[in-house]
Amino acid sequence: MFDIRQSMTPDDQLALYASARFARAFEAAVGRARDDGLVPGVVHLNGGQELVELGVFRQLDGARDRVTGSHRSHGLALAAGVSPAMIAAEIMGRTGSLSGGLGGTQHLVPAGGLFMGSNGIVGGQVPLAAGAAFAAKSKGNGGIAVAFFGEGAAQQGGVMETMNLAVVLGLPLLFVCVNNGWAQSTGADASAGAPLAPRARAFGMQAESVDGGDLGAVDAAARHLVSQIRTNGQPAFLEAHVSRVGGHYHGEDQGYRKDGKLTDPLDRLRATLVEAGVTAANLHRIEEEAEARARAAFAEAALEPADDPSTLVLWARDLGGFA
Ligand SMILES: Cc1ncc(C[n+]2csc(CCOP(=O)(O)OP(=O)(O)O)c2C)c(N)n1
Ligand SMILES: [Mg+2]
């Protein structure tokens, strides 16, 4: 068993636990907002994959790296340091947000920075990351791109095409496949004909598969692969197995689901911290702060006016496509 104290200081672990708790509290607030009728459309929450997201982001450099994500990307935007109130406002379709509330939960597109954006087309964010990797390579700035996607998306033609092209062109691109065992209600066993990491190796890249609930394992594998990519300029693949803590979307009836009782990775990390001597009072304070910050972000976002559909027209005209 990997000992996370080998790769992370106790302060690092505690800070990461605080970030993970905040991400979880933020998602709970998204769920409440949806229940209250404040979120248009469905929302896909990221509960269970926080340690993968934060473990990979630890390795990245905000000045030169770029990240894309799927329909399930609130946690990526938070991990990249995007303002929680702006994300909340975008999710609720308000102005004063990332794209005036017109993108919504599945299309979080901050203006610049580490997180390039999320995409509601399954797998669509992966070739976009290849473009960012190509840009970094052309600039020669040592930057890399990272594409987060699900195991369902891994079966998409555009994703496999990107894996091949990344090897052929020598792109500094990390493919992060978050395997939560489900693509909507289709089990992973029914969507992939062969294990994903060996498949990635067959494309010609280095690949590792880890338990995404094991922070030390995620951190070690991500650190190794990112450092390899920065050194040799070649793509790599990281598969992280996680439990999908909730439904495919918030409020889904998961009658199809037979995978039994799940171990929550945040409870697991908490137990490790207790074992390492962090006091219950300290952990409790972190958890309360996470909850308060999440509520404050949504309270701030709720003050923003609703989106303005006429801005769609403005954008189309500015792009030259509107007479
Ligand atoms: C091209 C395309 N096909 C189908 C859908 C409908 N859809 C949305 S999410 C999803 C499942 C994706 O599964 P996975 O990639 O494993 O991601 P997860 O939801 O598990 O995070 C599907 C089929 C879509 N949005 N885009
Ligand atoms: Mg999945």
Which descriptors apply to this entry?
binds magnesium ion, 11% strand, 8 strands, alpha/beta, two-stranded antiparallel sheet, binds thiamine diphosphate, 323 residues, single chain, six-stranded parallel sheet, Rossmann fold
Walk me through this protein's architecture.
- The protein is α/β, with parallel strands linked by helices.
- It has one domain (4-251, 261-306): Rossmann fold (3-Layer(aba) Sandwich).
- The chain is 46% helix and 11% strand.
- The protein contains twelve helices and eight strands.
- It has helices at residues 10-35, 50-57, 74-79, 84-91, 125-139, 157-169, 188-191, 196-203, 215-232, 265-275, 280-302, 310-318, and strands at residues 66-69, 115-118, 145-150, 173-179, 182-183, 186-187, 206-211, 236-241.
- Strands 2-1-3-4-8-7 form a six-stranded parallel sheet, sandwiched between helices. It has a two-stranded antiparallel ribbon with strand order 5-6.
- Helix 1 crosses helix 2 (50-57), helix 1 (10-35) packs antiparallel against helix 10 (265-275) and helix 1 (10-35) packs across helix 11 (280-302).
- The longest helix has 26 residues, at 10-35.
- It binds thiamine diphosphate and magnesium ion.
- Magnesium ion binds next to strand 5.
Output the number of helix runs: 12
Globally, the shape reads globular
- Record the strand order, biggest sheet: 2-1-3-4-8-7
- SS-based class: alpha/beta
Mean pLDDT: 93
Main sheet overview = 6 strands, parallel
Provide the helix percentage.
40-55%
Instruction: Give me the strand/helix succession.
Output: HHEHHEHEHEEEHHEHEHHH
How many β-strand runs?
Answer: 8
CATH topology description: Rossmann fold
The low-pLDDT segments are none
The CATH class is identified as: Alpha Beta
Annotated CATH homologous superfamily: Thiamin diphosphate (ThDP)-binding fold, Pyr/PP domains
Question: Ions, cofactors, ligands: which are bound?
Answer: thiamine diphosphate, magnesium ion
Question: What is the level-2 CATH architecture name?
Answer: 3-Layer(aba) Sandwich
Q: What is the gyration radius calculated from CA atoms?
A: 19 Å
The structural domain count equals: 1
Report the β-strand fraction as a percent range. 5-15%
